[in-house]
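WARN no homologs supplied; continuing
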Amino acid sequence: MEAEGLPNAFDVYLYCRGFLSGQSAQIRKRSKVAMLLVQNEESIARLTCDFTIPAIASVATRLLKDGVFELQHLAIQRFPELAAPSAAQAVERASCETDSSASEVEAAPVADPKDVNGNSIKDLTDKAQDDSEGGEDASTSAASRILKRRAFSELQPVYLPFRTQHILLTTLRRMLETCCFDFGHRWVPDLMKEKRWRELESLELTQWIQWFSTAKNTLPATILRQIEGKSVAEILSAVGVIRHAAVHRIRTSAEEILNMLGAAETFANMLYNESKMKAIQQIKIKLNGRLEEFWRNRTMVRRKLTKGLRDIARRRLELDDLEEEWIEDYRVADEEHRNEAGAAIEAHLNDPQKFWKPFDKVEKGEYSDGSESVQQESLNAPNEDTADGVMLSSFDASLQ
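OK structure emitted
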């Protein structure tokens, strides 16, 4: 569990790995991490809404020390959600655990690739999308929830087909080995003869990295070109990441591959291998262009999807309103009919001609309904038995 007041480690990794990978992955001081966070505050805007820079820096520093930003397989071990190319699990986790973003993804923020001018590809496409969509209403909010639930997160990373990734990284690894082989024949031919490194395939990239790590301080200063802002150790570490991803077939996002191409370009530049540096630049430009086109296409398709979902959500809301209207009409009509029935029963019970007649009034004949009139007449008019009684009495008296 995360300590109270600290952001979720998975969220920090997703939002920060765009600028904490590569050479920045070697940083271990929290103050430097905090400085990078301030410089990339736009990328972590969703985190800074709920947490302070020092709190985010604390979690990011811990992840850096664990090597999570440096090696993909360590990141996957720490966050198994990254193993799924669709990042559906990542979106689900972000939705369930943090519920902090409406977007959104929720799933999860990966720094997007840049175009050749250094502009954010995703920012360029999102701006056009935001301009077209305008403000958010109920149907837009519902569409966003559907996108989030279906794992159509804007923030999920882009992955090349695995075959393409493997070919690209394997080619890149071989180009780096060629740089090392050319360097050896040019600057340390005696070493190449001594070790019998006659063919390119005779020495693996890891061995070159180890050799450079031990010999960098003994080599003449002019052999290795000084790269501003980057040490030899940082450059070699980035090359090791490339080799590891290529050999062990680590699933790598397109954004991370762009970072690897940048690291490979720096390595070739350090070894003064202009031809390989230009070849790597061409691969980087090609990949960047395709990713830029991909983001444009994704934006267009997503805009179409969002519009369709908004229409569905609006119709669903209209149907919900219609359902509520019909239910309310039913309730009102049912209440009216119930009240009418009650009023009719009360009126019948309160009618003085029907109920609650005192017994003495009945005896006095004050009521004139049919049954009581008959009863009163029967009391006043002699019947046959009475007449016979009078005649018998008169007959008995005459006999006496």
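The CA atoms of residues 75 and 119 lie 27 Å apart.
OK
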